[in-house]
Amino acid sequence: MNLLKNKILLSILPLLLIWGCSNPSYKIEESQNENIFQLNSEEEKDGNKIADAIKQTHDLDIVLYPTDFLRRYNYRDKGASERDRENNIKAWEAAKDKFILGTMTGAEITRLITQRSQEKFETPFYVAGLRYHIHYVGGILRFANFANMDNSRFDMDRRYKVAISDAYLNNRQFYFPNYEFRNGLNFSFRISSKTISVNETLQNGKYREVKDLLSRSIVTTEVLGDLGEMPISKIQGTRFISDYLGYRVTTTGIVTAVGERTEFPEGSEIIIQSEKDDGNPLTSEAIKLHFIGFIKEPKLGDKVKVTGVVHEPMSVTGMSPTELWDISSFKTLSSNNKQPEPIFLSKDGGVIVPDEIISRFNGNLNDKLKLDTKDTIDFYESLEHMRIKIKSPRVLGCRGLREDLVDQRRSDRESAYITLYVKPDGESSFEGETDNGGLILDEENLNHSPEIMMITTGNFSKDLSRDHYYKVGDLIDGEVTGVFTYSLNIFGDGEYSIQTPIPQESLKKEPNLPTPLRERAQTTLVSDENSLTVATYNIENLGGDQDDRITDLAVSIVDNLKCPDIVNLVEIQDNNSIDFSGSTEADVTLRKIIDDVFDVASNKKKSQLEQTTETFYDRLKEVPHCSTFKYKSINIDPVAFNEGGQPGGSIRVAMIYNPNKVKFNPRPIPGPLADTLVMLDGSINHNPGRVFPNDPAFRRSRRSIVSEFEFKGQKIFVIGNHFNSKLGDSNLFGAIQPFVSGSENRRIPIATKINQFVRTIEKRSPGAGVIVLGDFNANPGETSMRVLKGGVLENLIERQEFVTKNNRYTTNHNGISSAIDYIFSNKALNDKGVELEVLNVNSDWMGRISDHDPLIAKYQF
């Protein structure tokens, strides 16, 4: 393809705020001029007409109509019957019809359009209410210009009324990863309760057809020139970004991996590696080839010659793999060639993975002039796409299929992934080892254990046993050889991982069943007449329509926690979970939990796992007190679509309590935003209440709930919390180094307000017990947790006699065990005598009921 003359590009730039392009993507050539921006596609005319109709009929500002909706449906399942094909096409047509109304800022709209254009470097939306032109060179964004329909400036700060596709937002049957996961719309898109039908909109005819001769939507790509043949190592270079970005090159290599990308955007992918190493440890000898659409795949060991454009498809964190796109020539030169020798990564006679720090660089890694393989991320970049080998990896964490005991989010489809986070040379003990064989977060040095590696299924491998439940501490006996590749995940982020194109004997595991909950950790802190037991449990987005998960939670409350007197439940969803219809009420969710706890404790109900294994536990003999009462619930329904969490789920913190043990005198709150005050007599005016619900500290986050109990004549205030998540943090392996915990800045003011409320209680109700518990999304030593303690509270997990340092964890993130759930209490309670246990019943296991572990405290009276 010819090089675009600079003068042509410069002549176009003043018009970019107005014009678009009708084609899904457009490669600029010397012979093309401004005429490419004229509206000449029937497809775009139809797309604009539909978008205009939706906008006018429903009084909206912006409509984003996916371009895929006007293209022929392609059902690829070769094993499906004709009837199944027809049903799937009908379901697809129905999914296309439903749009959801809500609001987004201009910045959020432009970010969504830009991110979706990066999937295939094609126009993602036909639009009403704005125009855009986005331009890429080698997969790197060069500019993204947006304007109103009248060519005026598009306001990035304004909040617009928007319609987006429900199918793309959260329908996983046809579009995955969707807006919710890939683009974070569960945070940026404020949903109204209304959904609309496109077909009904078009049929009522209450709109006028807009005559628009200029395109509104354009995505262009540019090729800088043709450089001819060069080795892979030269294409890769000694930096994070190739020096030949955007140029067409020709290279040769041995096929080491072939695969199909079955998730959006679909296509074939191939990895090739040089036959001989160039001897430079900074240069990778392998490269990935990306095909839009599916091709007849070559075989492993084929020697191929390929011509394509050097791309660096950027993840949301700024990292990118070096790839060849726009493949114009692909030839097989020979077959059955020997695979390149893998690089052995080991402390025992191999290349040692640096484990001191992810990066010493300060700034954007893409600006770094040369890799430094003493830094882990640079070392990994030097191995990008190459064959490597590790031995005796120990499992430190698990993710994906079989992760959940009841798989509420994933089906058994072939594309469902499994990821194991492993430590090579795992037969040896190591610093920071937990009792269960995991790795605790090093809070003092915060190097985040960069030597942890991922073995995963993916485009190039489905080698991990799909019916095997792993657990932390498992040792994989033998060697694992695969390609070490950087791939985008469902969130638009990227990860280095080992994928195994050649089946590995060491990874073959026999099918098994998950370990029953009662065979995992059980508390020894059982309630009695002179003590009060209080637990907190983040139960991971549990709604009223998830019956099997509710039963599993009941089993855990009975078997693992032994029915505490008060249980703080984090991430309770409304009665229909993530369905957008209905209210935010969670009375059904909580009633089912309470009923199931009683029925499980009374031998009237079994979990799904117990039914599968035909096991029976006589719980009346083991924990008889659990069947002598029914919990009661404490809950305040939140404002719809206003407190974070999964879209439509209406997440909140709630509580259940034993009415035979503690007194609770309800003083109903008039609404979710009513302020709760500590009165002069030491009681709260609303019971339960919400702590500073209108304070800016809690904006777009879960409000904390406070309940006032009485036990043995003493007031006990329990404050349940779910602080904002870590989604504001930069990525540990992102382009911007060092890592920055941006989310911590939001937790500090929340912690300040909770501490202020506790101080007010202690001032107006001297001698009252105060318990602050929940999911704080912060490590014990972070500033927010120190602020929360603030001289009035103690974090019980920090007591060595309760939990040793290497076992202070309640969750597992990417193979690192860390604590973010806590029980704090004040001196009035702690001086009476207190104990704490953390029950690692979830974080160390596949087949879990939540991504958090429960904690339980026992207070003596």
Protein architecture, described:
The protein is of the alpha+beta class and 861 residues long. It has 3 domains: 6-221, 5'-Nucleotidase, C-terminal domain (5'-nucleotidase,  domain 2, Alpha-Beta Complex), CATH 3.90.780.10; 225-334, OB fold (Dihydrolipoamide Acetyltransferase, E2P); 531-860, 4-Layer Sandwich (Deoxyribonuclease I, Chain A). It has 17 helices and 39 strands. Strands 28, 29, 30, 31, 33, 34 and 37 form a 7-stranded mixed sheet that branches. β35 (811-813) and β36 form a beta hairpin. α11 (547-560) packs across α12 (587-601) and α15 packs parallel to α16. The chain is globular. It starts with 5 loop residues before the first helix and ends with a strand. 46% of the residues are buried. Residues 1-36, 73-78 and 408-414 have low confidence and may be disordered.
Our Rg estimate from Cα atoms comes to: 29 Å
Would you tell me which CATH topology of the largest domain applies? Deoxyribonuclease I, Chain A
At CATH level 2, the architecture of the largest domain is 4-Layer Sandwich
Question: What does the main sheet amount to?
Answer: 7 strands, mixed
Shape: globular
Cα end-to-end separation: 82 Å
The total domain count is: 3
Residue windows where pLDDT falls under 50 for at least 5 positions:
1-36, 73-78, 408-414
Strand content: 25-35%
What's the level 1 CATH class of the largest domain?
Alpha Beta
Number of helices: 17
What is the helical fraction, as a range of percent? 10-25%
* Class computed from helices, strands and strand pairing: alpha+beta
Query: Total number of β-strand segments?
Result: 39
- What is the assigned CATH homologous superfamily of the largest domain? Endonuclease/exonuclease/phosphatase
Average pLDDT level: 89
